[in-house]
Amino acid sequence: MSELLSGRHALITGGGSGIGLACAKKLAADGARVSLMGRNLDKLNAAAAEFADPKRVHVFAGDVAQAEDVAGIVAEVDAIEPLTIAIANAGTGDIAPLVATDDARWQQVLDTNLNGTYQLFKQAAACIGRAGGGAMCAISSIAGVRTHRFMHAYCVSKAGIDMLVRTCADELGTAGVRVNSVCPGLVDTEIAQGLFGSEEVLADYLDCMPLARTGVVDDIANAVRFLCGPESSWITGVSLSVDGGHHLRRGPNYDSFSRAMFGDDLTEGKF
Questions:
Q1: How far apart are alpha carbons 222 and 257 in whole angstroms?
Q2: Which end of the chain is more exposed for a tag (fewer CB within 10 A), N or C?
Q3: What confidence tens digit (pLDDT) does each residue in 146-186 have?
Q4: Angle, CA 105 vertex, CA 102 and CA 107 arms, to 5°
Q5: 154 catalytic, yes or no?
Q6: Could you report the per-residue pLDDT of 39-78, keeping only the tens digit for each?
Q7: Rounded CA gap, 36 and 44, in Å?
Q8: Is 253 helix (H, G, I), strand (E, B) or coil?
Q9: Looking at the predicted structure, is the pLDDT value of residue 190 above 90?
Q10: What is the number of alpha carbons within 13 Å of residue 175 lying toward its C-beta?
């Protein structure tokens, strides 16, 4: 195990599986203490058991969409050992034509993705600054870079995250707090299984990638580890696309999903 991150303490939201868990493992492998936040305590405990040194892994059940949950957990984490790294990974999504978008679902996506990132950054920034500086990183998306038809709330939330990253980076640099984001393309995770299950949609994704393969969680975790480590000490305010070059082309074609769920007329804009 490397000691490059010895003395560092990282909090990862959505840390019980997928990209969040992969990020936590990369940080722990380089000597960091890690704290995992998520809504499912059983999943968090199972994730903690996968680490080589479970004593340096702490789990906290809470919802990033609830400001009081985030504030309380950040305070508990900081009390264990000063918080120096915060990774906003928890997220959700939805698909619907604009005129069929459910208002409650729109708000839920924004509350989890954008407001959840805001709450983590808001609460963690002071802790990291008091500790002498460190890094915050958000998991954004190719959907914040390129339009995804029928995914309005998700796209808006991810684009908002990237602007939040830039404004925080501009403000918090004087406190020694670096702020960046990683924008994944299509990654093989639990939340993306519906996309992998459609041959038509998967083929379209691959057509949009100069490096024509889908991602794995370590592709994203490696980028997050770099942006939170000493190797990137002069990098802040960056949104790094890790997507096989997908950002160079266009967003994916989700027409087949929309047709199946909402019919041809709404998909084709026939109101």
A1: 31
A2: C
A3: 999 999 999 999 999 999 999 999 999 999 999 999 999 99
A4: 110
A5: yes
A6: 999 999 999 999 999 999 999 999 999 999 999 999 999 9
A7: 7
A8: coil
A9: no
A10: 20
Q: How far from chain centre, in Å, is Cα 77?
A: 19
Instruction: Pull the structure tokens for residue 224.
Output: 């997050």
Assign 71 to helix, strand or coil: helix
| Structure-token pair, residue 39 | 């809504």
Q: Tokens 């890094």 identify what position? A: 135
Taking the whole predicted model, whether its pTM rises above 0.70 is answered as yes
What is the Rg, in whole angstroms, of the alpha carbon atoms belonging to the chain?
18
Query: CB count, 10 Å around CB of 265?
Result: 11
Q: Where along the chain do its domains lie? A: 9-189+216-244
Place of tokens 């978008």: 101
Spatial separation of the C-alpha atoms in residues 111 and 94, rounded to whole Å:
13
Beta bridge partners of 11: 35, 86
Strand partners, 10: 34, 85
Rounded distance between C-alpha atoms, residue 255 and residue 104, angstroms: 23
| Identity of the amino acid at 68 | E
Q: Residue 269's closest CA among 100, 37, 153?
A: 100
Q: Are 246 and 209 in contact (CB under 8 A)?
A: yes
Q: Which CATH number fits domain 9-189+216-244: 2.40.420.20, 3.50.7.10, 2.40.50.100, 3.40.50.720?
A: 3.40.50.720
The pLDDT value given to residue 191:
86
Distance of CA 66 to the CA centre of its chain: 17
User: Which residue is catalytic, options 118, 154, 205, 254?
Assistant: 154
